[in-house]
């Protein structure tokens, strides 16, 4: 029978400590954490971790910082379930527990190298993509043009406000953003994220698109990208499912024949066009 | 290794000796049906059973299994607390299911909790003596089994052939007394039992070879049968519960009264249950009954075969019996896909 030398328990979380917590919106808070072992998390942009609070449970959370920024890792947690609500009760110095990193990552060292990159982020989709954006900016010479498109529901839902401004001012970056519904303090564009795409020139043969947002956004954004001349294999996206165990066993995140926790969450669009339940 | 032949009295004595030496679970009657349960007396063992209510997966993947214990201050610690045991009377189709689950829990990420139990088991399989009402293992190639077990028992007339295949099996067979080596004739008769069982365990007839199912499903995604059957589905998950190849689970935490210590445990889950593919925040990726119903068929007939090369339905027929709405017969669904594809 399947003997294995490793006695490693794939369900055992490791202790970590919260370094900083900062509310970002009504529902989202920013967390900076460190593994108690002193080791780096060892993730790549786009991967996720399972975050535990003993007695409450475990939830899959994207890592939002780039591995190029050492010493800690960052997450943005939306208050939606039991675990995320409990996480919102934590303060600097508190313990949480981590398994992972799990899953696939954006191909920052492979397909994206040397290419123009267009990041398309809707709402909380900015959270995993920020890891890739930081990675690209930290290795800026390895890539061509960098275009970041960001759309939020309302001005109050914008995440990483200061960082968005930094990207906007960055010489080497084209940054555009919009909100679905403006308010009196918003002077920027109003409209869904697809309205930003015609505003940028895309070198269709030399561009890789990284897309992340709510399920409904993918269909529309992908259509526009394809219309702009990108091929399906130039588009990468990150899918959300209930990644309960993170190790390809529990069945919850399965989409057709793929396990999002192992085969994803980052997929090349051309690899999932035949997968009925994907989008 | 060796095949022994035992008369009924010697066989019963051996079972009694096994019970005296270790924890034994075996098939017993429960009212007019059968279950795997702790075996106290050799006389309670019913190797003439047709099918058990639940498959033996419960011994490797318990309905509720503690994975970790925690102390809110100190963190988590793995729990491995299973004891060696003997499982008496596993039918071939259930043995095939166990071997499939072994592959899936070893694949990619090795599940030490599953294998901690699995490696402590000595499995005594037995050939089917009485076909259940809904069995179709004969169509699935699982009416007989070649490996995975430690010992295989076949009843020939009033005698038992005990086929010892592994060292664990040999250790268990050490207490056998008054046995002779099986003669040529007995071994020939056993082959006849196997041939007969393949024919007898076909209460429903599948009109294709099982290895064709992945291709059949490839062209059936939009077939009306999913909606048609699912219209009557209660989303109760009974088919998942009784299925020997279903192994999906949920993970939960339990806190003791102190609010300091507790356990993280896994419980059986089922892809037919309405919340199975829901994420925090409420979005449900498989909200429609028909999508869930279809997913189960694709998982058994296509997705798992793509991973391990075997169809993940072993033809035990338990889902047919368990389904309150009478929509779970896999043979009926597959035959419909075959007929209408012609």
What fraction of the residues of chain A are assigned to beta strands by DSSP?
25-35%
Q: Report the β-strand fraction of chain B as a percent range.
A: 15-25%
* Arrangement of strands in the largest sheet of chain A: 4-3-6-1-2-5
The largest beta-sheet of chain B arranges its strands as: 3-2-6-7-8-9-1-10
| Count of discrete domains of chain A | 2
Rough shape of chain A?
globular
Q: What are the segments of chain A in which pLDDT stays under 50 over at least 5 consecutive residues?
A: none
Using only C-alpha atoms, the radius of gyration of chain A works out to 19 Å
Structural class assignment of chain B: alpha+beta
CATH architecture of the largest domain in chain A: 3-Layer(aba) Sandwich
N-to-C series of helices and strands of chain B:
EHEEEEEHHEHEEHEHHHHEEHHH
- Estimate the global geometry of chain B from the Cα principal axes: globular
Quaternary structure state of the chains depicted: heterodimer
What integer is the average pLDDT of chain B?
A: 95
Distance between the termini of chain B: 48 Å
- The first-level CATH class of the largest domain in chain A is given as Alpha Beta
CATH topology call of the largest domain in chain A: Rossmann fold
Q: Which sheet architecture does the biggest sheet of chain A show?
A: 6 strands, antiparallel
Largest interface: A-B, 46 and 57 residues
Number of strands of chain B: 12
């Amino acid at each position: 029978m399947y003997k294995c030398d490793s006695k490693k328990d794939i369900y055992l979380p490791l202790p970590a400590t919260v370094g900083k917590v900062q509310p970002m919106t009504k529902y989202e808070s920013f967390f900076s954490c460190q593994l108690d072992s002193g080791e780096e998390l060892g993730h790549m942009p786009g991967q996720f971790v399972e975050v535990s609070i003993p007695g409450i449970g475990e939830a899959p959370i994207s890592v939002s910082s780039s591995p190029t920024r050492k010493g800690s890792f960052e997450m943005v947690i939306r208050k939606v379930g039991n675990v995320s609500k409990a996480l919102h009760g934590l303060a600097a110095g508190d313990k949480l527990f981590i398994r992972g990193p799990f899953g696939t990552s954006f191909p920052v060292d492979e397909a994206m190298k040397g290419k123009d990159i267009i990041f398309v982020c809707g709402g909380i989709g900015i959270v995993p993509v920020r890891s890739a954006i930081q990675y690209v900016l930290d290795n800026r010479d390895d890539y061509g043009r960098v275009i970041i498109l960001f759309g939020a529901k309302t001005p109050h839902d914008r995440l990483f406000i200061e960082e968005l401004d930094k990207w906007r001012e960055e010489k080497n970056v084209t940054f555009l953003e919009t909100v679905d519904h403006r308010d009196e303090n918003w002077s920027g564009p109003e409209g869904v994220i697809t309205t930003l795409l015609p505003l940028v020139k895309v070198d269709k043969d030399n561009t890789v698109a990284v897309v992340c947002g709510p399920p409904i956004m993918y269909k529309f954004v992908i259509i526009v990208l394809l219309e702009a001349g990108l091929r399906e294999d130039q588009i990468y996206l990150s899918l959300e499912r209930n990644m309960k165990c993170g190790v390809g066993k529990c069945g919850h995140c399965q989409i057709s024949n793929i396990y999002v926790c192992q085969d994803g969450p980052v997929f090349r669009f051309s690899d999932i066009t035949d997968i009925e339940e994907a989008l | 290794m060796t095949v022994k032949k035992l008369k009924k009295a010697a066989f019963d004595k051996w079972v009694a000796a096994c019970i005296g030496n270790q924890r034994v679970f075996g098939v017993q009657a429960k009212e007019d049906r059968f279950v795997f349960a702790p075996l106290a007396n050799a006389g309670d063992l019913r190797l003439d059973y047709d099918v058990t209510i639940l498959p033996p997966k419960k011994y490797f993947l318990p309905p509720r299994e503690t994975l970790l214990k925690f102390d809110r201050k100190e963190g988590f610690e793995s729990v491995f607390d299973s004891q060696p045991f003997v499982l008496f009377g596993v039918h071939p189709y259930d043995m095939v299911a166990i071997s499939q689950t072994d592959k899936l829990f070893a694949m990619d990420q090795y599940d030490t909790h599953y294998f901690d139990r699995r490696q402590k088991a000595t499995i005594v399989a037995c050939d089917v003596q009485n076909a259940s009402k809904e069995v179709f293992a004969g169509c699935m190639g699982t009416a007989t089994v070649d490996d995975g077990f430690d010992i295989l028992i076949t009843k020939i007339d009033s005698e038992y052939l005990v086929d010892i295949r592994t060292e664990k099996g040999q250790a268990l067979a050490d207490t056998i007394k008054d046995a002779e080596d099986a003669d040529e004739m007995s071994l020939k008769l056993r082959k006849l039992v196997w041939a007969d069982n393949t024919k007898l365990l076909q209460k429903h007839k599948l009109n294709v070879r099982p290895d064709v199912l992945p291709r059949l499903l490839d062209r059936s995604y939009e077939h009306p049968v999913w909606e048609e059957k699912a219209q009557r589905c209660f989303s109760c998950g009974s088919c998942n519960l009784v299925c020997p190849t279903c192994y999906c689970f949920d993970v939960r935490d339990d806190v003791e009264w102190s609010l300091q210590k507790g356990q993280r445990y896994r419980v059986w889950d089922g892809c037919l249950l309405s919340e199975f593919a829901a994420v925090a925040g409420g979005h449900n990726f498989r909200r429609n009954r028909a999508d869930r119903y279809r997913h189960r068929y694709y998982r058994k007939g296509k997705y798992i075969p793509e991973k391990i090369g075997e169809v993940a339905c072993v033809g035990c027929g338990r889902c047919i019996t368990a389904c309150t709405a009478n929509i779970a017969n896999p043979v009926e669904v597959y035959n419909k896909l075959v007929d209408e594809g012609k």
